[in-house]
Specification:
The complex is a heterotrimer of chains A (500), B (336) and C (150). Chain A has 500 residues and is mainly α. Chain A is built from 21 helices and 2 strands. In chain A, helix 7 packs antiparallel against helix 20. The longest helix of chain A is centred in the N-terminal third of the chain and has 35 residues. Chain A is globular and about 60 Å long. Chain B folds into 2 domains: 163 residues, D-Maltodextrin-Binding Protein, domain 2; 125 residues, 3-Layer(aba) Sandwich (D-Maltodextrin-Binding Protein, domain 2), CATH 3.40.190. The N terminus of chain B is likely disordered. Chain C has 150 residues and is mainly alpha-helical. In chain C, strands 1-2 form a two-stranded antiparallel sheet. The longest helix of chain C has 42 residues. Classes of the chains: A mainly alpha (500), B alpha/beta (336), C mainly alpha (150). Chains in contact: A-B, A-C, B-C. The interface between A and C is large, with 69 and 68 residues.
Amino acid sequence: MEGIGDLMTGFAVVLSWQNLLYMLIGIVLGVIIGVLPGLGGANGVAILLPLTFTMSPTSAIILLSCIYWGALFGGAITSILFNIPGEPWSVATTFDGYPMAQNGKAGEALTAAFTSSFVGALFAVIVITLAAPLVASFALQFGPAEKFSVFFLAFCSFVGMGKEPPTKTIAAMMLGFALAAVGTDTVTGQLRLTFGSTELLGGFDFLIAVIGLFGIGEILLTMEEGLSFKGKAAGISPAVVWQTWKELPRYWMTSLRSCLIGCWMGITPAGATPASFMSYGIAKRASRKGDQFGKGEVEGVVAPETAAHAAGTSALLPMLSLGVPGSPTAAVLLGGLLIWGLQPGPLLFVEQKDFVWGLIASMYLGNIVGLIVVLTMVPFFAAILRVPFAIIAPIILVVCAIGAYTVHNSTFDVVMMLVFGVAGYLFKKCNYPLAPLVLAIVLGDKAEEAFRQSLLISQGGLGVFFSNGLVGSIMVLGLVALFWPVLSNFYSRLLTSRRA
Amino acid sequence: MIQTLGLRTAAVALVAAVASFGSPSAMAWEPTRTVEFIVPAGTGGGADQMARTIQGIITKHSLMKQSMVVVNKAGGAGGEGFLDIKNSKGNPNKLIITLSNLFTTPLATGIPFSWKDMTPVAMLALDEFVLWVNADSPYKTVGDFVKAMKAAPPGQFKMGGTGSKQEDQIITVAIEKATGTKMTYIPYKGGGEVAVQLVGKHVDATVNNPIEAVAQWRAGKLRPLCVFDSKLLAGKDKIAGEMSWSDIPTCKSQGLDIEYLMLRGVFMPPGVPKDAVEYYVELFKKVRATPEWAQLMADGAFNQSFMSGADYAKWVEGEEKRHRDLMKEAGFLATN
Amino acid sequence: MEVGVAAFMALLGVVTVIGSLRVGIGWGAEGPKSGFFPFWVGLIVVAASLYNMAQAYTKGSRKLFASWSQIGQVLKVVAPLTIYVAAIPWFGIYLASALLIAGFMRWIGRYGWPLVLAISIGLPIVTYLTFEIWFLVPLPKGPIEELLGL
């Protein structure tokens, strides 16, 4: 329990007016960054990093990490309002968040998203406070085979749950895998599927696909329906926050499960994006209202947001204690630490107590400040939906184009965004599911890389995936998740036949 | 708030500019707009860290009127970034920092570029490579390690490294050649990840750069066996127990005759004015004089060679030849 | 139309298969080669798409999935967006964005010129300040920015 005492020292370090001001600035900037697609938390942190060199390391890391929290919060806003995920980990939030907004429940969706983000982050910070060394040694267990098993599980828990025809699901998912494979093959360093084009060297970025498929595709669908020329009349009052809060405790089980998934994925480090997908998938199966998911169910917002935030927060732990960043943003923060002369690694917790516990204390405070800031903005954000379509649509298009460009500073990506946009519209019309496609793009190359690294280690033997208790049990969980629909079907049939 | 920050930076820059007017070193050419500093690798890697440190130093000490932005173009093993420079003929507001992929990427992938398509500016430093093993492993010296490797069946020893057919794998092949053994090389995406895989005992050895593994070394998780350089590292400060950087023996002295250093240098697009090149050479000289730079060099135990102009070009030419030979020997040349 | 989408996906599948064949699709001594996964993935895309195509054909859903007027509506966005995307490399993102917003608001929204101009000129300026000044992210620029010396 010495962690608690250290934490109190940390609070003492953090609690100064100046630091609180930095927190506020950081959160607001972070939200802006999170809202603008393409300008991810990594950009924001990277760009502001040089500006912080004049501050003390503690103040600087507070400012930067609050940008990070802000971006985590902000990513949900555009997902819910416009079906455009501002950050990769908010894709799963669109599934239910956007339908909620369409049903005039934008305020509820935003409140639920922000609150669950807060819960997830808080849970993760508590885990970090109490179990940092333990958690770090757990992370060390993860070699390629273990990583592959985690991706496998994430995938299995998500597939096989749509209502679309299975062949279409398979086609969409496999197309996602194919797109993920374009570019340089990490394991051999070979170029593949680029067909000599320089633009394809970097492969297809997930964000560009998502901006196109979801954002542009949605605008095209709205256009076709031709009814949303007037803004959505959404009842917006600050009371919406209280009403939603009264409802949220009902989902404590989903919340807890998502927290655990998020922490686990953040630490391994698989990252926030698979965590959000996995959490959504499992929540859908576990929930009694599972078949209502995708039509605007609050639980479908709670699950991915909680997990994403828990993962995003716990990803900082391996960064601090092992020097391995769990996300691009964490990678840039890592660079910052080095510039300040702080060496991330096992000794950081021993040698730089003030700094580490100051940072952890700022996670608590930053999240509280963040929650207050974003909740006060809920009515304002929801009001954006009142802006008439003919004004907001071109603005969204421009913001999408800028977002697509900034991912790689390439105009080719803007073209790809357009192609993905049209494809997204056609897929929607022809009843192809988009979620498996984007999931395959996110996880495809990482999973393949881990798979092939494992086989290099085992010199070709597939037994490596069951070689120890950890990897074996995750793989079995994955298989169970994959065949769950079949199993549960079989089980219920068994029950009925017994009764008969 | 940011606006005020921006204004403050602008004001500081202005003061600095006025000050430099009075000094005799006032230069004819200066960047006319924001300078893009391209990193042909992902965020968080060695090159990225160095570029961002330089950006920080330039901003903090107001060494340049215009601001500098770091842009990552990592696609195609960095080919994306190099092609961008190659195709920005005559643009004096673009720089690129290199790692060994300047030589390895065109050879391994056939992406059409070479250092001759760019204007060499300066060598900032050379990055060292060290042979690391897990501190729990029984290998205390290179001799132990090589002996164990020879005793094990071929391919059983696993070497972790960054990327495929790049510097880490070149060294691995060189070790295999020198010892007559066969290892399995496992490519990962970043140097930090490689070091942690070694700590987690998922691989048996790595050839991480000092800065990638130093934290784990200090924590007593890793053990350095030798450095792939002809002379000892510079740092005399104790890092782990009684050892400092300079206590790591050279591989050659341990009977493993391999030498490899990685270029951390800067290039510009082709066809840029001579004044511009000189401006940046001066700029980097100023960067190198700052305490922050000294700190980075000490943390990472860099080899602090500096070169510019014809010397630099000549050095790069020699390195390119060497890489061609190394890659050819290792069978890494692109076939198509 | 559904047949068309399926055919297009099948085509992408074929392209993937061809691309994979170039880098080797075997399962070497140390695990699969670069092309192994893309190859099978491509084959599955082709197979699934052929099935989908047949399905769409036999079910007689050969009719369009949307009425012509709906498609016209969609084209009202797709056409200007295509021009916009094509114009970015030449005119820079700021001018192109201003034109897109102005055109869209005027043509589809039928708003009065003052509002149209305010938003279409205001947004690029806000964008410029946010991205280039605050966050130092360079966006594509064209002749106008060159003239202004930005």
